[in-house]
Amino acid sequence: MANRAPLAVIADLSLATAGGEAITVAADGQVITVTLPRLWSRRWAPGPLADRGQRAALLDRLHHGLQSADLTLRFKVRRQVVAQLAPQSRPTPLSRLLGLGAMEVRLLPLVRALLRQAPAQQRA
Question: What is the rounded distance in angstroms from the CA atom of residue 27 to the CA atom of residue 12?
């Protein structure tokens, strides 16, 4: 069987939450980056993401899709890459604790993102 050529994704998308905060999705070839305004919002975990078992199954399917397409999905908060799901990703102890499957949760960038002030707070 011949190797599949990787999928190239080119995107630049901006979304607004119900509260008016910006979420951006950008892709340049093999890496898709989702930039979130903050680490957590009650509105970000509805449906299957709220249930640990469903969340794990959903992330497992997503991981297999990323492996097939040779794509990497990164999550950034306040300029820090706090998590990544790539074809070669393996669970970290923190991702296991949070029920995030093979998502590589990066502890130090996560702490940095938590400690940084939000842009609106910096201006005040």
Answer: 7
Task: Judge whether residue 122 has pLDDT over 50.
Answer: no
User: What distance in Å separates the CA atoms of residue 27 and residue 33, rounded to the nearest whole number?
Assistant: 6
Rounded Cα distance, 19 and 21, in Å? 6
With vertex at residue 79, the alpha carbon angle to CA 19 and CA 107, rounded to the nearest 5 degrees, is 100
| 38-89 tens-digit pLDDT | 877 655 556 667 788 888 889 999 999 999 999 999 999 999 999 999 999 9
Question: Within 13 Å and on the Cβ side, how many CA atoms surround 101?
Answer: 21
DSSP for 64-119 reads HHHHHHT-EEEEEETTEEEEEE-TT----HHHHHHT-TT-EE-HHHHHHHHHSPPH
DSSP-derived 3-state class of residue 28: strand
pTM over 0.85: no
**Helix (H) or strand (E) segment spanning residue 33:** strand 31-36
- β 80-85/31-36 pair status: unpaired
